[in-house]
Amino acid sequence: MIDITKNTEDKDKFILGVALKDDENKYVIKYASGRSENCDFTVSSLNQVLGLMEEQYLEYRDDYIKEILKENKRATMKQLIEALLAILGVYLSASMPLPNILKILIICVLVVSSICYQKEQSEKVDYNRYAAGVILSADEFLKMKDNFKVRIVDPNTGLEEDWYLLTLSDIQAIVDPKLVGKIAKTITPDMKEEEEHNTTEILEKRMKLR
Question: What is the pTM of this model?
Answer without folding.
Answer: 0.82
